[in-house]
Fold this sequence. Notes:
Blueprint: H1 2-26, E1 29-30, H2 52-59, E2 62-67, E3 72-74, E4 82-88, E5 91-96, E6 102-108, E7 113-114, E8 125-128, E9 132-138, H3 139-148, H4 150-176, H5 179-197, E10 206-209, H6 214-221, H7 225-237, E11 242-244, E12 248-251, H8 254-261
Antiparallel strand pairs: 1-2, 2-9, 3-8, 4-7, 4-9, 5-6, 5-8, 10-12, 11-12
Amino acid sequence: MTQIKTARIGTSIREAVNRTVKPMLNERSLSNPVDCSECPIRHRAVCARCESDELERLEEIKYYRKFEAGQTVIWSGDRMDFVGSVVSGIATLTQTMEDGRTQMVGLLLPSDFVGRPGRANAAYDVVATTDLVMCCFRKAPFEEQMRQTPHIAQRLLEMTLDELDAAREWMLVLGRKTAREKIASLLSIIARRDASINMRNVTGNIVFDLPLTREAMADYLGLTLETVSRQISALRKDGVISLEGKRHVTVPDMQRLLDEAGDDSDGGVFA
Length: 271
């Protein structure tokens, strides 16, 4: 009975916050969107295969939105009238149970697609972990563009299948890997994506800013905060990574990090 009351109270609070937050988000649209040809995620995003005339049609229905770290992009179950791609920053996908418990079920990295064409409501809470910029498309016009532009539908299918493969691979990370391997796996995922977005090789020295707090890493990996801190310290002590502060990470040898993660040299499907 107590759990049911707690869940109802949590739902009421969420609905109240939702009514307050939505207007604020609408006011944070960016007035100077980047031209598609100059977009930093152009080679990875849903528009990656589009020709110039197809990009022009997308330009007509796109807009940019910015969210501050900690701000909710969309609540699970809410009507979602847009889809889009993460341009910069990172967001989390979180699922909430009836009794109020939550679990982080995914990360949205630059170039990842948000939303589901053909579905009216959001499946998960999407929350900005860092300051977040998204290239958004009005949903109905985007769905029409998918019907008219095979390049968009083809690329979205590829991204969806990659996401499915990544989810299956993540089951291996959570189910079979040691704590050290889990930390190394997450660091290698972020490092490879950062290198891909910036069109750098993943060999040699790789430098990136860790977008997650230790607490968020613990939640995502199913570990305690103490274990995460201990394993990061061990990786640093062994020379696998170096840290400036808590977030600025240098990987001197990417292959060694992949070895620590128990991954093949191609890095799997997360890149």
